[in-house]
Amino acid sequence: MAIAIYLGRTDDNHAIYGIENGAGSLFSTALSDLSCEQLAELIIIPQSPSYYKLGSERLSARTKRLLPVCAEYEQSK
Question: Using the 8-state DSSP alphabet, how is residue 52 labeled?
Answer without folding.
Answer: S
